[in-house]
Prior knowledge:
alpha/beta
Amino acid sequence: MKIGNFTIDKTSPVFVIAELSANHNGSLENALATIKAAKRAGADCIKLQTYTADTITLNSDKEDFVIKDTIWNGRKLYDLYREAFTPWEWHKQLYDAAAAEGLVCFSSPFDKTAVDLLESLNSPAYKIASFEITDVPLIEYVASKGKPIIISTGIAREEDIELALAACRRMGNNDIALLKCTSSYPAPIEEANMIMVKDLAERYGVISGLSDHTMGGTVPIVATALGAKIIEKHFILDRSIGGPDASFSMNESEFTAMVQAVREAEKAIGVVDYNLTEKQAKGRDFSRSLYIAQDIRAGEIYTEENLRSVRPGFGMHPKELKNYLGKAATRDYSKGDRFLG
């Protein structure tokens, strides 16, 4: 998978996405400042969401359209999305601002008209949000554009994942990544279930990663250790500016610390290699080897008291000890001499 100048595969560094979502809080100035901050924080990408209240839901007061049991409890869907949406006329300026910072920019479209807008901006990739994984016609339309597709699985059963993948492949698009996601805001860490990152990659033969709504940086680090190649986190200039997503978004200092931890985790994972580095080989100086533990004259018998396996490691390998015990010394030795046979 290639997005902008970034290649994302099993051996590449983690591709870190800062999700702008509603964290501009209705201000273009905030949105532009957030892009600059994301770059400072170490993000590789800034991601938008492209919808209006009318393209994502209906303006209805019926009970089905009133949110329950979330941080937006009691609000109408229409009112929430009317507050949270990113105006379409901002998109080109935001894409241009990201490019000026050296950041990739793409978006989650929520209907065909959003895809058409993003195509006009030559968007390098598309994200299918967790709640849209069941919208097979939308996935087909996105896949038909031939761009990489990143799909969150926050509400997905196996059948939903399989239908989404089949929709992409039906359109001849196999450039797919699946993100483990817990669609709870914020998400409890005990529901993160990061072992799924590894299973998604193995089961479906795709790049896997994490779209994270937990608080803090622990889950992204665990995801990295389990093979995540994409990590997405909601990003905000300062939670004090407010907005629908502010409470579960990372500020610049938190995001910076997370990125640093992810990069350190990548270094710690390393590669399968039984050869020793120069520093590791130097450490063998402190391993065990055979040394003379008591003065010995030629002809005396080697015993467990006068020939021992001790630190450091400059003498003969300890595996040879049994071959010398009970035999006669061929020359004089003094305590502390390396035994070399």
